[in-house]
# Entry
Amino acid sequence: MASQGTTIVKPEELTEIVFDAGSFAKHTATILQVSSPQIEGAVRLLEEGNTIPFIARYRKEATRGLDERQLRAIEDALAKAKELASRKNTVLKTIAEQGSLTTALRQQIEQCSDARTLEEIYLPFRPKKRTRAAMARERGLQPLADVLLAQKPLAQPKAALLKAFVNPGKDVPDEAAALKGACDILAEVWADDANNRKLVFEKAQQGELVSLVRKGKQEEGAKFENYFDCREKIARMPTHRFLAMQRGEAEGFLKIGLDLDEESAQRELSRRVITSPNFEFRRELEETVVDCFDRLMKPAAESTLLQQLKERADQEAVEVFAKNMHDLLMAAPAGPQVTIGIDPGFRTGCKLAVVDSTGRFLVNETIYPTPPREDLTHAETVLLRLIKEHNATLIAIGNGTASRETERFVDGVLKRNQLKITKVTVSEAGASVYSASETAIEEYPDLDVTVRGAISIAHRLQDPLAELVKIDPRSIGVGQYQHDVDQTLLKKTLDREVESCVNAVGVDLNTASASLLSYVAGIGAVLAKRIVSWRDENGAFLSRKDLLKVPRLGQKAFQQAAGFLRIRSGKEPLDNSAVHPEQYSLVQRMASQLKLDVRQLVGNERAVSQLKAAEFVSGEAGEFTVQDVLRELARPGRDPRSEFRTARFAEAVSEIEHLTPGMVLEGVVTNVTKFGAFVDVGVHQDGLIHISQLADHFVRDPSEEVSVGDIVKVTVTEVDVARRRIGLTRRARS
# Structure
């Protein structure tokens, strides 16, 4: 009679595994170090279709103040938990249909807590391609393999045993072929064993990742010369170095592989699988161990290890990109001023575009102040005319080709004419992508791509967030190997970061583009276009409630979005604040207590300070909500972004050839990676501050020292003109 653990479970006896919210809450609470009720509240709100920004800002009572980062982690964990439950059902059904699902195996699968372990359990039962072992089984050699696996004394001589399996009709012409086929089955059985895989994988983790230059590729692949003969312990492998190696291999310059202690691994594997020292086929079993290791287990361990390294590298690279993206989007806006955007150029000239204080395009011109034409007189006349006609107070110059030459020309014009106008060099990263995009064509259908680029440059200075949301985040150039990482993960993470920034700042409902509106909680691309269309047809929104007039914008979308939208000079003063319409009645009660009109309360810090939060806590508004409302009333619509500042590039330094070690320069941080930070010092080539040069103290993570957009003072340490490399430091000179 079969033991309870070995009883076979039939497919019809299976019951579907469903997501267990209670267990999930306890498990996730431990990981995130919060309480189970907080997790339960967040899950309930997510399941109801609420967005992360809305939950974080307007449902703090339900989550006891969980922030966006924690809520994102819960959202991801929830998706993985549901996916794991679904995968368990598939695995159980597949194994049961094979007739191999025992009660013990069923319990093991049901209790499995992560996807990787589940796949390890499933591996022996996974439908395989036509392997050598599968072909051996087709030839009737499984019984012989069972004898070898049992390793018990033979009841007959070896030759007689093997001869019984000779069958030329089944492609087993002799005893040697029979033995080889049985050993192929043996190798696969050993390789599928979870404990054996764990042994070899642990040995692989102790090994080194090796990269070598491919024959004849030294000169062509010079940019990867640091990896031409490189060894790195797996346990200490920096993720950015791994991604560099992978890129070198993908481009055909490097070959990477795993180097581990094979003798030790084979010796331990042999001790584990060969249990009978006097077994008649011991020599053949030892040979099979070597074959199993070389052909199946080492490649599998290497593949798994590289996959894990890649996943970790992708995760870290995406986190770095997201942090840089956040800093770039949250860069200080120059504000609503008439701005002239200049897209510099040599042969084709500099494209000028004037936009008004609201960002509306007014006029464009082309001037030729740079070689080969150097028509300085006409260029100055045009620039002065545009400044005076439109009362421009800002000039934004793209940092691409001819940037420093154009900047010198503009400086000269401003000095000669004693004009107090702020001039700023603006990153062009992604501008060309935007200029040719469908979004740009819809916005400016009658303009040339270069003029659209100049407009974008002007907008980037006025409000970086509003302009950069029009561009695929992957094209903005603040990432680390962004084209080598998991693109689905990258897009998801960056879209989240953009959404977070947009909702943190708030959006003017009457001036925002469809691109910007699409990132507001609850709206999305389709509704954003409908909002803009309604605005174009009916004029400005006079109140947040007018949003409900937009076709197919229902109560749920309104609830999620309303608090993040602003209406300036509207009928309702609270519409220009982060106070949600749900709490307008609460504000009315506050104003009434002070015998004030709501308009008199909004922005009146002195009056707000007289209100006691505890007096307004109720079933509709808890302590978190009341405190948030009071803060917003004191300083309505405050912008979380920093104050606008500009860097001053050295006038005499405009090319890399002008740099010499020891120079002290001011620059702008353009990118932060795990190995350091890149800084624009105004020479068309960013310099690198290596992590070891970021500070006089030990730096664990560059992002703890600098952020994208920071203005920093650096000292030049190294200049390699041929390779276009600049070394910089922030350390104090001894």
